[in-house]
From TrEMBL:
Organism of derivation: Undibacterium flavidum
Alphabetic keyword roster: Coiled coil
Protein's name according to its UniProt entry: DUF2325 domain-containing protein
Keyword set includes Coiled coil: yes
InterPro entries in UniProt: UCP020408
Region feature Disordered, mapped onto this chain: 1-22
């Protein structure tokens, strides 16, 4: 009984001396008390590293499970041997920076503060090893560190369980998102295939249109060659056309003189009628009304005379342009000249369309008329400001040919068409 008591005292003495700093040298793994080996092996050394070190110590891979490896490592850490030396070397290398930081502690209080800071920061593995092996670590600090580590392990276990629950939820959400992504990818792939087919179809259309364009250009060149040959082969026809043009020009001059005489006669009649009305009418309101009626009547007659002159004049104007059933939109102009405009356009092979430029016709109708036209003639002298800018902006945006005519006469329209003919001839020659 006495020997047993002495043995117990000796064991307590050995345990006490194991926790007291023997010198300024840091303690080794086998210098620590047995109750510290479990948290050191379990927390400070990863399980995969522990299995590798154990295999290196025994000279081959071990078939033991994780718990058996853990218990065996704890048992081997109580004294110096091959495995404990490997564990000691790995711990020193793994936590060298933390050990270097703990060396700055010169008192037990400073060492305790470093440990508490490590707990607050959540980096306890290296701090636990550096604190236990520090020369100033006494029995009280060792027990406090072991208690703190015990509670941290419980908290870590609870955290791991919560993380597992969250991880499973994340896995389910990830599977749901993966299925959703797969559906989106399938829809995207199908959409890309449809677009690829559409692009292929458009490319075939482009090739076909290019072939048609080349064919049309060849036909144009062939017709231009034939036209030049006809001009060279029939000079007498050209001379006859010139003579006819001179005759028509002389006739036009005679009609101009006749028109001037008619206009002068109309003005004289207007003056005489106005004078007669002033003599015969007794009431001022009736006088003004009659004067207005008379003026409107005479102005209408004058306009009809002018329109008749232009109608006869435009037939004498030579136009080399051939519109070849193209749609020609005339925007603006005098209402009395619309028939003359139509006759002139149809005489050179075009299809005539008219819009009054926003005076009576709808502005919405102007957009559809512009879209359907191949050539636009804008009568700038008889058109609203809004319609003028809409025509100009539309033709600039679409690249459609537009001729601006300041004078709303038929001759001005003919000169505009002749300008188009000259520009077309210049383009073909180039």
């Amino acid at each position: 009984m006495c020997e047993k008591h002495e043995s117990s005292q000796q064991k307590q003495h050995n345990s006490a001396t194991a926790t007291k700093p023997l010198s300024s040298r840091r303690r080794r793994l086998w210098d620590l008390s047995r109750e510290t080996h479990c948290p050191v092996i379990g927390v400070c050394i990863p399980l995969a590293v522990l299995r590798r070190l154990l295999g290196k110590a025994v000279g081959g891979a071990t078939q033991a499970d994780d718990y058996e490896i853990h218990v065996g490592a704890i048992a081997e850490s109580s004294y110096r041997n091959r495995l404990s030396e490997l564990l000691q070397e790995d711990l020193e290398q793994r936590y060298s920076l933390t050990i270097k930081r703990f060396r700055t502690a010169k008192t037990v209080g400073a060492l305790t503060q470093l440990w508490l800071d490590a707990i607050y920061q959540g980096d306890v593995a290296g701090a636990f090893w550096a604190g236990l092996t520090h020369p100033l670590c006494d029995l009280g600090l060792q027990e406090g560190m072991c208690r703190d580590m015990h509670m941290l392990q419980h908290q870590a276990g609870a955290t791991v369980r919560a993380d597992i629950v969250r991880f499973n939820a994340v896995l389910e959400e990830n599977a749901l998102l993966a299925r959703e992504i797969a559906r989106h990818q399938e829809r995207h792939t199908r959409h890309m295939q449809e677009k690829a087919q559409e692009i292929e179809k458009l490319q075939r259309n482009i090739v076909q249109l290019r072939a048609e364009c080349i064919g049309k250009e060849s036909i144009i060149a062939y017709l231009n060659t034939d036209l030049q040959a006809l001009k060279n082969a029939a000079p007498e026809r050209v001379q006859a056309e010139k003579n006819s043009h001179q005759q028509l020009q002389q006739k036009l001059e005679r009609m101009g003189v006749r028109q001037a005489e008619l206009e002068q006669k109309i003005r004289e009649l207007k003056h005489k009628l106005t004078y007669k009305l002033k003599q015969t009418n007794k009431h001022g309101s009736l006088e003004v009304t009659n004067e207005n009626v008379l003026e409107n009547t005479l102005e209408s007659a004058l306009e009809n005379v002018t329109s008749a002159k232009e109608f006869n004049h435009h037939r004498t104007i030579p136009i080399t342009l051939q519109l070849q059933q193209k749609n020609v939109l005339c925007v603006g102009g005098r209402s009395g000249n619309v028939a003359s405009y139509r006759d002139l356009i149809e005489r050179v092979g075009g299809r005539f369309a008219h819009h009054d430029g926003g005076m009576e016709d709808s502005q919405n109708l102007l957009d559809s008329s512009l879209a359907a036209a191949d050539l636009v003639i804008c009568q700038t002298g008889c058109i609203s400001h809004n319609a003028y800018w809409r025509v100009k902006e539309f033709c600039k945006r679409t690249g459609k040919r537009c001729v601006f005519v300041e004078n709303p006469s038929v001759s001005s329209l003919a000169r505009g068409l002749e300008q188009v003919s000259e520009e077309a001839t210049t383009t073909v020659d180039k």
